[in-house]
Structures are given as structure tokens and as C-alpha cells.
């Protein structure tokens, strides 16, 4: 065990934890004022629900002893055998508890990301049951496949900090939910204007800050790889914020604050799988591309007509997919991508992208149908008119 | 007695208030309102999606004055609120049947 690494990863875990309330502000500012609390609640309650689920069953399904490359065994259920030393820890240099809680924070934010797709119309009870099932049946297997000794990691897929596990999985789930749930009442005829963009930009800033823990911490050591991941994360994000506003300046005539914040998040998403495998200059290239590609990604919902309220598909789905493929192209640190002559890596990345989308979409479809038929997923028109804050929580965010 | 409703730009509130107080208007009621006139609303863009915002924020000032004072109030309000650009607003004048001062029970011009 290495005390320096331990200190670093514990701080990184705290940074990643801060991303979830940051996401709550990012999403909360984007909805109408009558839905601000319910939207914040979707993120905030994942800190409660997922943390407990993770300790009880999620961690062991993700990192327990491998069963057929598909799922972890129950050796760490209820955190048995997860202690203060490194016994059984996937990272020899860290106490097992440190590794577990760092991974816990990733598990917390992933279902919270999905909630942007069904914001302003989701019943709270349905959301909690859906998230429970999704964490166990989608997140835990994905996490095991990539990081827990499962088939995707064995195949050689590169996913430094969760491009597939966190972003593609939540993007695919978001697309499925947005299609199955249908549009918000008034979609197409009413303008759904963000009620508090300063809140959104503050949230984006917190996400950017916390993402250093997310990506640099994924080195699992306070070493040079962590330093590289920190720098690539920052460079890609900065570049994507720039390229997004340039794209919208040309396309829409104005550079907007929401565009700057959205571009930053797009850059963070895209660099996530690549963070430890590329150099800072390639990170800038990835960021520049990500800003423009994700700006295009958010147009998809207008083209195809689904109501992904807060653009989870356009930013996390498209950004995560691009990032996974870009990793296969630009990897030069500790792995070789296409530019180092290793075309096979790009093929492996492509397979991981297709498998992630297919698995997460289909599983989300099944979970959605089950929860919808039992607890119910979508609020009715009257509840949507009142606003989800009053309808679901008997509260209002602002007293005028 | 006449009620004069002045609907105009929010930033013109202080100038209109000062102008009316300057000619002897003793009280007024101010509301924040939204609406549109011939100019329509305005366009807002979020993540590339354009939204037409129909209702533009304005202020509405209600003043009730004696009949023979009304023209002077309208003129003062019109001059103070005018910028010459589209969206300056409207002034409506309508008759008022009765006014009651709640504290004293006075009615009519006495109560204004």
C-alpha cells in the first residue's frame, strides 16, 4: 500500500462526488423553474440510493471474482472482505476501501446523467426504481466488462476513465428513455427556456473541477499518468468550449454562455476514455473535434423528433462514442492507436462502442417497460402543467 | 374621472414617475406585465434551437385623475416614455365611475 497514492485517490473520490451536485445545478438551471427541484433531486438522490446499493451489491457485481467475463461474483457483497488494507483490492497500492469508494462515485453520477433525458416529466418513484434496476443490471455489468476483469477489458478496449462505462452507457439509456417516454407536454408548441443559466454555468464549472478527480484519479496512483490525464482533461475541455462557440457563432450568429458550458462538458466527456492514453496536443485535437461534433449531436433530436430534454444523447452519447473511437486513433501513451500504426486498436474500440450501445439500449428498454408497467414512469399532463416540484415533492424552488 | 394606463419599457419607469409627480399626480400603481404589440416578441437561441418569445416584459402604470387633468397626464407620460423606437408602448384612457378612499370613506374627486 502506498500512502501518497491513497491520499491522492481519496481526494479524487471527493472531487468526483462533487460532480453530482454540480450536475444537479447544471441540469437544474436548464429546466423551467417549476421543475428545478425535481431535476436537482434526480441527481442528489443518486448520492443516497446508489451509494447504498453500491456497498450492498453493486461493487461486488462490478469487481468481484470474474464469472465468464460477464459479471462479478458475490465475494464482496455487503463489503465483506473490503478493508483498510490492500487485501483483495484491484489496486495493490490502495486500501481496498479507497478503491471501492472511488468507484462508488462513478456509479453515483452515471444514472444521474440519464435523468437529463426525462427531466420535467418523470415520476419520482419510477425514477428511483428504474435507477436501482439500471445500476444493478446495466452499470455493474458494464463496469465489470471494462474494469473488473470482464471480456471488454480482456479484448483490449481502452477506456481510461469511463467513456463506455459512464458516458456511452448513460447516453444509450437516455436515448431509449427519451423515445419510450415520449415528449413533454407542450413540446413543439411551447418554448422550454432554461430558467437559470448562471446556475447551469456554475454547475458546468463544478463538473470541470470535479472531472480532474474523475480522470486523473483513474490513474489509481499519484504518478505521471495522473499528471498527463489531468492536463489532457483540461486541454480537451478548453478546446471544446472554444470550438463549440465558434460552431454556433457561424451557425446561429451568436456565441452563447450555454454553448460555452455545453462545449466544456462535451470536451470532458470526449477526453474521458482517452485521458491517460493521449498526449496534451492530441487532447486539444480531440477537444476541438468534440465541440463541433457534439454541437451537431444536439441537432439530432430535432431531426429525429425525440425529446431528450437536456441533451444527454447529444453530449454524453455522441461525445462518449467519439471519445472511444478517438482513443483508438490518437493513443500514444502506454498504448498504440491508429496514428502509431495500430489499426487493430481502432477496431477493438469500434467493437466496444457497438456492444456498449446495444447492451445498454436493450437492457434499458426492458427495465423501462417493467417499471412503466408497475410503478409508472411518466407524469400525466396535469402534473406536468403544475410542475414536477409541486406534483411530486410538494415544494417550490422559488417564492416570488 | 379617468384611469390612465401607461404600458411601456421597464427602464422608463423612473422617468415617467418623475414626470407625473412633477405635474402634480399624487399616486400611482405599478405592475410588471408581459405582452407584445405590433413588433412581436423576440428570438432566443438555446443549444442551436430557436425559440420565439412572444411576451416581452413591460411595466404598466395606473393613474386615476380628474377629467380635466387627464390630457396633461397623458402628454407628460407620452413625452417621458418615448424613445422613438418600436416597443415604446401604449397609453389607454378610460372613464372611472367611482373612487372610494377606504380610510375616510371619501368618494369622487376628493378620494383621488
TrEMBL record, chain A:
Highest taxon listed in the record's lineage = Bacteria
Q: Which UniProt keywords apply?
A: Ammonia transport, Cell membrane, Membrane, Transmembrane, Transmembrane helix, Transport
Q: Which Gene Ontology terms of cellular component type are present?
A: plasma membrane
Named from the GO MF annotations, one term is: ammonium channel activity
Record-annotated membrane-spanning stretches: 6-28, 40-61, 94-114, 126-148, 160-181, 193-214, 226-246, 258-275, 281-300, 312-334, 346-368
Give the record's membrane topology: Multi-pass membrane protein
Q: Which Pfam families match?
A: Ammonium_transp
Record's subcellular location? Cell membrane
Which residues belong to any copy of the Ammonium transporter AmtB-like domain? 7-398
Q: Which family does the record claim for this protein?
A: Belongs to the ammonia transporter channel (TC 1.A.11.2) family.
NCBIfam families the UniProt entry points to:
amt (TIGR00836)
Q: What is this protein called?
A: Ammonium transporter
What organism does this protein naturally occur in? Pseudodesulfovibrio cashew
TrEMBL record, chain B:
What are the annotated GO cellular component locations? cytosol
GO biological process: what's one of them?
regulation of nitrogen utilization
Checking InterPro entries in the record gives:
N-reg_PII, N-reg_PII-like_a/b, N-reg_PII/ATP_PRibTrfase_C, N-reg_PII_CS, N-reg_PII_urydylation_site
Q: Which residues carry this modification: O-UMP-tyrosine?
A: 51
- Family per similarity comment: Belongs to the P(II) protein family.
Keyword Phosphoprotein applies: yes
Q: Which Pfam families match?
A: P-II
Q: Which SMART domains match?
A: P-II
Subunit text: Homotrimer.
Q: What is this protein called?
A: P-II family nitrogen regulator
| GO MF term list | ATP binding; enzyme regulator activity
Query: From which domain of life does this come?
Result: Bacteria
Species of origin reads: Pseudodesulfovibrio cashew
Cite the entry's keywords alphabetically. Nucleotide-binding, Phosphoprotein, Transcription, Transcription regulation
Q: Which PROSITE patterns has this protein been placed in?
A: PII_GLNB_CTER, PII_GLNB_DOM, PII_GLNB_UMP
Keyword presence, Metal-binding: no
